[in-house]
Amino acid sequence: MLRATRILRRDALSGGEIVDRVVLDHGDRHRRRVAMRGAGGLGFLLDLPEPAVLEDGDALVLQDGRLVWVEAAPERLLEIRAPDDHALKRLIWHIGNRHIPAEIGADAVWIADDHVLAEMVRGLGGTAEPVERPFRPEGGAYSGGHAHEHDHSHGGHHHHHHAGG
Question: Which residue from 92, 148, 149 is spatially nearest to 121, judged by alpha carbons?
Fold first, then answer.
């Protein structure tokens, strides 16, 4: 089977023959090894040396040098807004305290659609409206540039509540 063994990041993409594209949601863009099929029907094995996040606009380099474009699929998200910058920062803190992926923009934050978090945001004076768009969350301090679950190794005893689990 044809293999893709490298990621060419969008900022380094300066040519090459793009032969197909894969449209992946946030969860499916966190991979190391998986069989894939492009939108045009090209089948190949993603076979990276270590787990990586495939970002919107990157390309997968096939072993013959051809490229497969990576596109972020639209997902159902909550668009969170606040009446002012301070209120938005406060909401970002509360969202971050829940250890969930979040995409932070200049005047809005996007998270996976979750009715409990939507009510929390509204209770804190923000708005939480459902939208459909690609999700490009922040990587996180413990992720080496990409979001993933992480082990908490804190001194003392801490109890964490994680939404959805």
Answer: 92
Write the single-letter amino acid at 115.
H
Cβ proximity of 7 and 60 under 8 Å? yes
Q: Residue holding tokens 């932070």? A: 104
Burial of 27 (0-12, 13-18, 19+ CB in 10 A): exposed
What is the number of residues in the chain?
165
How would residue 16 be classed by pLDDT, with cut points 50, 70 and 90? confident
54 within 8 A of 29, measured Cβ to Cβ: yes
**Rounded to an integer, what distance in angstroms lies between the CA atom of residue 128 and that of residue 113?**
9
Tell me the whole-structure pTM to 2 decimals: 0.74
Of 58, 7, 54, give the one whose Cα is nearest residue 30: 54
| The two structure tokens encoding residue 76 | 């159902």
The whole-angstrom separation of Cα 86 and Cα 74 is 29
Q: What are the residue ranges of helices labelled H in 25-132?
A: 85-96, 115-123
pLDDT digits (tens, 9 = 90+) for 98-144: 999 999 999 999 999 999 999 999 999 999 999 999 999 987 554 44
Quick: pLDDT tens for 41-65: 999 999 999 999 999 999 999 999 9
